[in-house]
Amino acid sequence: MDQAPFLTGQLLLAMPGIGDPRFEKAVIAMCVHDENGALGIGLGRIVPRITFHGLLKQLDIEPGAAPDVAIHLGGPVEPQRGFLVHSLDWGGQESIQVGDRWALTATLDILKAIAEGRGPKRWIAALGYAGWGAGQLEQELCGNGWFATEGSDDLLYDCDVDNRWSAGFKSAGIDPRLLTVDFGTA
Fold it and tell me: Which InterPro entries match (predicted)?
């Protein structure tokens, strides 16, 4: 019996014409995907008017050693809730290891660790997440809404947010300029 093609640990790239402006050129790090649904963290857009230091200050955490970087718009669900996608060299009690690629943490202990200079070496902060109910993502994949790719650590951590979507397609050998909103069946 074939195992279901779950996408945990992969990147989802929105196809042109996805039909939802919130996901136009979206890049989503898939953290959970199973028969019950899916959860991913968007890495294709930046939250305006707040940086990491501003977030820490709102939480009464002294920024200390933390760099003042942009915060990503993780998705439309619970946009006030924070998440960190990070390297596997740090793990807290509530951290979820995502395959052998990265971990996901949504607790204050990682923010404090980063501020104190003892957090993960590589990380991305986001507010909100993208979520799908059972079978919903599979329907969107069949409707040509998304493209899944393995991605890379460079794409995840080092790529400029404005180039991440096109770089994701290029890493899969696809020229995004050749993608079209039209599709059909053979």
Answer: AlgH-like
